[in-house]
């Protein structure tokens, strides 16, 4: 399996699912958009072929890009990065795409349990925990509309929520781990590692041979510790409001 391609395919399939089930998914020549009906996710625009300055100008005239993030990856990242910056975009974050063979997944842990979100009240709890962990919103409405295709989990210790995670199984049978975070009051207690191990083992039980994710530079140490390898870089840009 080409794990670089599989990582991106899982990520794009996740964005498409979010737009189709709970907002808008639009395919234009050279790029696609997935726009939330509420909240701040997915709200993504990504390119499906090499871009030029004219295409970028046309996109900006047609769409309100101040609410969208533009991720880029691949061999021509530096060229596209330069083009975006010269067109007034700013880098929002850099992530490290990572992967692991789930045959090497650690054994399950006993301290943290995970509960799958299966109802609107649980979607509301997950949404609030996500906002605490990450500082922006995936609305409860988005979670409620998409949980038929996307697995949302709440991690708990002694009955109290400590964090959240998403597991997205795509049509290729890859386990994509996304939006894994611990709320501020519960950090530095080892909960993130235990949530990750749960996601890896759930993915394996669902039949996946590999898992992928996108890590911050700060978070990559945890993933390396649990067997993930670094594969490539994804950079995300935003168009600041004037």
Counting helices, strands and paired strands, the structural category is alpha+beta
What's the count of strands?
11
Residue runs with pLDDT of under 50 for 5 or more positions: none
Largest sheet: 8 strands, mixed
Describe the structure.
There is one protein chain. This protein is an alpha+beta fold and 242 residues long. 34% of the residues lie in helices and 32% in strands. It is built from seven helices and eleven strands. Strand 8 (160-169) and strand 9 form a beta hairpin. Helix 1 packs across helix 5 and helix 4 (120-134) crosses helix 5. The N and C termini lie far apart (44 Å). The mean pLDDT is 95.
What's the short story on this structure?
The mean pLDDT is 95. 34% of the residues lie in helices and 32% in strands. The protein is of the alpha+beta class.
């Amino acid at each position: 399996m080409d794990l670089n391609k599989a990582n991106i395919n899982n990520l794009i399939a996740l964005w498409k699912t979010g737009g189709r089930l709970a907002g808008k998914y639009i395919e234009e020549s050279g790029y696609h958009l997935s726009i939330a009906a509420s909240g701040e996710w997915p709200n993504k625009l990504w390119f499906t072929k090499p871009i030029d300055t004219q295409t970028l100008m046309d996109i900006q005239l047609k769409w309100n890009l101040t609410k969208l993030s533009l991720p880029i990856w691949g061999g021509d990242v530096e060229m596209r990065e330069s083009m975006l910056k010269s067109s007034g975009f700013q880098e929002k974050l850099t992530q490290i795409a990572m992967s692991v063979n789930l045959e090497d997944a650690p054994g399950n842990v006993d301290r943290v349990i995970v509960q799958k979100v299966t109802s609107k009240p649980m979607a509301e709890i997950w949404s609030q925990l996500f906002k605490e962990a990450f500082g922006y919103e995936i609305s409860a409405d988005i979670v409620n509309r998409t949980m038929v295709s996307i697995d949302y989990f709440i991690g708990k210790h002694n009955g109290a929520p400590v964090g959240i995670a998403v597991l997205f199984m795509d049509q290729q049978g890859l386990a994509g781990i996304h939006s894994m975070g611990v709320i501020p009051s519960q950090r530095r207690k080892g909960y993130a590692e235990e949530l990750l191990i749960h996601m890896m083992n759930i993915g394996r039980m669902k039949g996946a041979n590999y898992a992928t994710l996108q890590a911050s530079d700060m978070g990559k140490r945890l993933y390396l510790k649990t067997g993930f390898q670094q594969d490539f870089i994804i950079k995300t840009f935003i168009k600041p409001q004037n």
